[in-house]
Design goal:
CATH architecture of the largest domain: 3-Layer(aba) Sandwich
Order of helices and strands: EHEHEHEHEHEEHEHHHHHH
Radius of gyration: 21 Å
Strand content: 5-15%
Number of domains: 2
CATH topology of the largest domain: Rossmann fold
Structural class: alpha/beta
Strand order of the largest sheet: 3-2-1-4-5-6-7-8
């Protein structure tokens, strides 16, 4: 397939790398468009694909067009692209921008809206996506292949779940990284060297996630397996609960969800 990626930032570059790794397209079949000269040169050097600063040129012969720009950049991108699209598959990864909004500006119905996350950079992403009702089975399969190249993918028919996924899995890696950072700092505080603390924390978090995935048990059950009555873990968990960790996480996710919804209320075009 021939692919045009509009936006050569982190996720745009990740998509290019993933598509090439999955052999869905060759270097000669991918074009990346970005207004930044430095980004274009980086993408060209790193992946060997064609680059341009002209979106219309990028999408001219594409089978799939991926909109990998920030939500605030979408109005300009969409309005300038509308006259240059034919029947391509359109995939947007911009948070909060609805399929209806994109369709109204582009006058296109073969649309996909997706929310990947940053672990896609190492092939461990989680992408939640949905599509317009007019999407053909051929284009649906094409979208699935592209998104699956970054890791796990989950299709949901109801678009309202996309903003929720943005708040949980889209922003989720940042919450995990913050927890990892805090746990490393705690290890240093009690006397571990930073490199030792970092190794312990990274392997503990990665191992815990893998264990939960393979054991298929509720997290509370797994937590109880680690927690001995009157032990060190029980004491630590008490402090976390008294500090409101659980409610802080819930409030943070709600705030991210509301922000994603607010992005979708802005008019485009």
């Amino acid at each position: 397939m021939k692919v045009a990626v509009i936006g050569g930032g982190t996720m745009g570059g990740t998509l290019v790398k993933s598509i090439l790794r999955a052999r869905l397209a060759s270097k000669n079949d991918i074009v990346v468009s970005d207004i930044s000269h430095d980004r274009r040169e980086l993408i060209k050097k790193r992946y060997g694909v064609a680059v341009t600063d002209n979106n219309a040129e990028a999408v001219h012969r594409a089978d799939a067009v991926i909109l990998a720009v920030k939500p605030q950049e979408m109005p300009g991108v969409l309005s300038r692209l509308s006259a240059h699209l034919a029947s391509q598959l359109i995939i947007s990864i911009a948070a909060g921008i609805s399929l209806e909004t994109i369709s109204q500006v582009l006058k296109q119905n073969a649309l996909v809206r997706a929310m990947p996350n940053t672990p896609a950079q190492v092939g461990k992403g989680m992408t939640v996506w949905t599509s317009s009702g007019e999407l053909s089975s051929e284009k649906h399969d094409m979208a699935r292949l592209i998104l699956a190249s970054m890791g796990e993918e989950m299709y949901l028919k109801d678009e309202r779940y996309l903003d929720m996924a943005t708040a949980v899995s889209g922003s989720g890696p940042a919450y995990v990284f913050l927890f990892i950072e805090a746990l490393i700092d705690a290890g240093v505080h009690i006397g571990l060297t930073r490199d030792v603390a970092q190794k312990l924390v990274i392997e503990t978090v990665a191992g815990s996630a893998e264990a939960m995935k393979k054991m298929s048990r509720h997290p509370a059950e797994l937590r109880n397996m680690v927690t001995s009555p009157g032990g060190t873990t029980a004491e630590a968990l008490l402090r976390l609960e008294c500090g409101g960790l659980r409610s802080l996480v819930i409030n943070a996710v709600v705030a991210a969800y509301e922000k994603a919804q607010s992005l979708g209320t802005k008019k485009i075009g």
